[in-house]
Design brief:
Oligomer: heterodimer
CATH class of the largest domain in chain A: Alpha Beta
Largest interface: A-B, 19 and 20 residues
CATH superfamily of the largest domain in chain A: Histidine kinase-like ATPase, C-terminal domain
Number of helices of chain B: 5
Helix content of chain B: 40-55%
Structural class of chain A: alpha+beta
Number of helices of chain A: 14
Shape of chain B: globular
Distance between the termini of chain A: 117 Å
Number of strands of chain A: 17
Strand content of chain B: 25-35%
Radius of gyration of chain B: 17 Å
Largest sheet of chain A: 5 strands, antiparallel
Strand content of chain A: 25-35%
CATH topology of the largest domain in chain A: Heat Shock Protein 90
Order of helices and strands of chain B: HEEHEEHHEEEEH
Number of strands of chain B: 8
Largest sheet of chain B: 8 strands, antiparallel
Structural class of chain B: alpha+beta
Chain lengths: ~500, ~200
């Protein structure tokens, strides 16, 4: 094989295009690689101007690059990213075609400076360019996704800061996010102080607590601030698993204010109860005061007429003493009632209800309400005697008020007690027409009242519920009942108190 | 192999001298190709730790906010990378030298010109330097990045090298306000080669 044959073999088997070109763009050599891809044979193009076959060539750039290569005696280049291609060669590819023309990297190497000849090497970079192109598209999509994600994160952070709860996010038991309120509520100065802490660092005396029991269920507990002080809070922990890591979102509501509000309501309610009591005392005192007044006036009149006998005097004084005793008794009853209980005691439920009714005797009498009792005299409770009385009296006063709005001629209050499912049940039912269905679910809410402002504070039934639920540990429910009594049909509210025995 | 990668005063002087010659030939090449009188400022040579390269570029390159960085890989005994850094405004002025008017020039054409000038500068200077040192350098086609700041400069492989020789020069054209920097960054092995060659030249001298 001679040198020429070797040269031809190499040029015709190499996997890139080779052109021998002079400064006038006349082709002197055109290898097989180009023949196969352009369908232009060596014979057709040799001695011709390259531009005759490829009129789209940018002559200015090609001229410059050839001139530079010759001048520098060093190669110049076409970059396939920027120039795309030198020769417009349509790609034979059928599927998955991204570009119509072959992308080319081109190197122009000086061949002979004197004759102004250069060798042009053409590399097919289509595959690389396609990958680049696809990458760019994917990159754009990624960027878009990133922007969207960032926006979402911003929104979430805004949401976190806008919420009224303090929010903490724990990843693998370690705090990774906290909102502004969380920092403030716990008395910290910056996020950094909180990040890295664990849930238990915030809960008082709860280091051995099994949190899994509290997932998704709000619970009340004392939480610890940075300075070590604590406050009551409502906590809810939600657990999610993301990318195999455990994430817990804890929201905290400060209950201090709510708790103090509760206290205030209790105080207001006590005052309201006292007000009602004074009304009741007035009712109950009218009768004995009348008796005293009448007896005293009688004695005075008889004495003026000098007709006062010893027996008259004794009788009148007896009446006065009896009435005074009664007045004193009433005060004792009310005093006990208002005092509240410090300790649980054992007491008879019937005796308790009797006492309640005696306190309200005056009120019930003046409202012409008949009380029908079905009381189990053996029922004993171990609870707070006076607190229960307060609750029952509230319900009875409420029934009394309800009758003011009704036109019912025969006014009844039915009180019955019995044992059911190991609970003592107290039912208080009236025939005042029942509670409108639109408000029946709200009557235990604080400050809810249907009465004119001068009549009610809206605290009576709320406090009754608080007493029954929190102090007595029982339940109170209300419903409207339709029933028959002495062959007449009535509708009324039925309050039911259930106390565990 | 001596791993202590520094140049002493003599070696640095010698390299400076060689670079002056190389830049002289590059200037001549540019002037002849563009038919315009171009000057390259006397190159400043420094050897810096690779980890300081970014800071060095930030401090030493006076470029407008947006700029082009083109890079060309050098292969052979003198291996490394040529970086050509040019600002937006200067590159437009440069394009005028190549016979483009502003309105007819696309971003790609502008990039092509920057690549061209990078190739011219690196070929002219490095070829000459390699020639003086009796070796050859093969140039890979240059690539270009458009950066909005050097901060975005991707330097994840910089750790591979301890030191780089930074050869900084300014390209100026008559009547045109063109400011650009050419930096030649060479690898550790090349620095050792260059140093050995410098010693040889110094001996012959």
């Amino acid at each position: 094989m001679n040198t020429k044959q070797k040269f031809d073999l190499i040029c015709d088997t190499v996997d890139n295009g080779i052109i021998l070109l002079d400064q006038n763009l006349e082709v002197h050599f055109w290898n097989n690689w180009l023949v196969a891809r352009t369908n232009i044979s060596q014979e057709q193009i040799k001695g011709k101007n390259l531009q005759d076959f490829f009129p789209n060539i940018n002559k200015k750039i090609l001229d410059r690059k050839i001139k530079t290569a010759l001048n520098l005696n060093s190669p110049t280049f076409y970059n396939s990213d920027i120039n795309h291609y030198l020769l417009d060669i349509e790609l034979n590819k059928v599927t998955n075609k991204v570009f119509n023309y072959m992308r080319q990297g081109v190197t122009i190497t000086p061949y002979d400076k004197d004759s102004g000849m250069v060798i042009i090497y053409i590399y097919d970079t289509t595959l690389l360019s396609e990958i680049n192109h696809k990458l760019e598209i994917r990159n754009d999509t990624l960027k878009q996704t990133q922007v969207t994600l960032e926006e979402e994160i911003n929104k979430i952070e805004l949401l976190l800061d806008a919420t009224m709860d303090a929010m903490f996010v724990f990843e693998q038991d370690v705090c990774v996010k906290v909102n502004e309120l969380g920092i403030e509520l716990f008395g910290f100065e910056s996020k950094q102080e909180i990040l890295g802490k664990q849930i238990f660092n915030f809960l008082k005396n709860k280091s051995d607590l099994d949190l899994t029991q509290f997932y998704n269920k709000p619970f009340e507990t004392q939480v610890i601030k940075k300075d070590g002080s604590d406050f009551p809070a409502l906590i809810k922990i939600k657990k999610i698993v993301l990318n195999a890591s455990k994430i817990e979102i804890m929201s905290i509501v400060d209950l201090s204010e709510l708790k103090s509000k509760d206290k205030l309501i209790a105080e207001q309610s006590k005052l309201a109860a006292m007000g009602e009591m004074i009304g009741n005392i007035a009712h109950q005192w009218r009768q004995p005061l009348n008796t005293i007044s009448t007896a005293a006036s009688g004695i005075k009149l008889l004495k003026e007429c000098t007709a006062l006998t010893d027996s008259d005097l004794d009788e009148s004084l007896e009446g006065i003493i009896k009435s005074a005793k009664y007045l004193s008794q009433t005060i004792d009853d009310f005093k006990d009632f208002l005092k509240g209980d410090k300790e649980k005691t054992k007491f008879n439920l019937k005796v308790n209800i009797k006492k309640d009714l005696s306190i309200l005797k005056g009120m019930l009498k003046s409202s012409h309400i008949q009380v029908i009792e079905t009381l189990d005299s053996s029922l004993e409770l171990f609870s707070y005697d006076n607190e229960l009385s307060q609750g029952i009296i509230n319900i009875l006063s409420n029934a009394n008020d309800a009758f003011k709005e009704s036109n019912e001629e025969n006014k009844y209050i039915f009180i019955s007690t019995y044992i059911k499912n190991n609970h003592a049940i107290i039912e208080i039912k009236d025939n005042a027409g029942g509670i409108p269905t639109s408000i029946i679910s709200k009557i235990f809410e604080p400050y809810f009242t249907t009465k004119h402002k001068s009549l009610g504070t809206g605290l009576g039934l709320y406090m009754t519920q608080q007493i029954i639920k929190q102090n007595i540990q029982g339940q109170i429910t209300v419903e409207n009942k339709t029933y028959t009594y002495e062959n007449k049909k009535y509708i009324g509210a039925n309050f039911s108190i259930q106390i565990p025995l | 192999m001596n791993t202590q990668i520094t140049l002493n005063e003599d070696q640095q002087d010698c390299l400076q001298e060689l670079m002056n010659i190389a830049y002289g030939s590059a200037t001549a090449a540019i002037s002849s190709i563009l038919d315009a009188f171009a000057t390259l400022s006397v190159p400043e040579i420094s050897i810096i730790d690779t980890k300081n390269l970014k800071t060095h570029l930030l401090e030493n390159i006076e470029v407008e906010n947006s700029h082009y960085i083109s890079s060309q890989t050098l292969n052979g005994k003198i291996a490394g990378e040529c970086l050509f850094v040019i600002g937006e405004k200067s590159s437009q002025n440069l394009a005028k030298e190549f016979g483009f008017e502003n309105e007819e020039m696309s971003q790609n054409e502008l990039c092509d010109i920057i690549l061209e000038i990078t190739n011219i500068l690196s070929s002219a200077t490095i070829s000459k330097l390699a020639d003086e040192m009796g070796t050859n350098v093969s140039f890979s086609p240059p690539h270009i990045h458009i950066l909005n700041s050097i901060e975005n400069f991707d330097n994840q492989y910089l750790e591979k090298y301890q030191k780089v020789i930074v050869i900084k020069t300014q390209l100026n054209f008559e009547n045109q306000n063109i400011n650009a920097e050419l930096l030649i960054l060479t690898t550790d092995d090349s620095i050792v080669f260059v140093r050995d060659m410098l010693d040889k030249i110094l001996e012959d001298f």
